[in-house]
Task: structure prediction
Amino acid sequence: LSAPGGVSLVVPQPNINATVAQNILLSVEYSCRGVATIEWKHVSSWGTTKIVEWRTGNDVNISTVYKDRVTTYENGSIQLLNVGMRDAGYYFVTVTEEYGANTYGTIIVNISEVIYEDLHFVAVLSAFLAGVSAILICFMWLCNKSLHLFQKTTTPKLT
Result:
């Protein structure tokens, strides 16, 4: 995308699919003639949140919500660490040149939960409980047989 003022922005991966607890890279590449200001926002059903804003060569201003979860890169990209379900949504990046020209980019992020780990746990637990039940049933059967043998040997016969 190229704006008339000379700002261009490329979003190589506009759709990202990730699972909970993954790190994701929101990759962009911008170019402009002057000093640029890069701003990232997240929009979802929970609202709009400003993630980060910085000027080329200056300090990065990260919002408190994302303080320990965002890494910024000189090309305008950001990395989100340890994503959760609330991180799904639209990510908007705005690159503004010092002379006022700007351009926009959008990345859609879909986050899914890993369910197979829960099913694996249930399957292992069920197998364990079935094994314990089988052992207890065998133990009860042996105790019953032993009791019958003991009763036959200790009860006097009537004549």
Notes: The chain has two domains: 8-112, 115-158. Residues 68 and 81 are 8 Å apart (CA to CA). The longest helix spans residues 116-154. The chain has one helix and eleven strands.
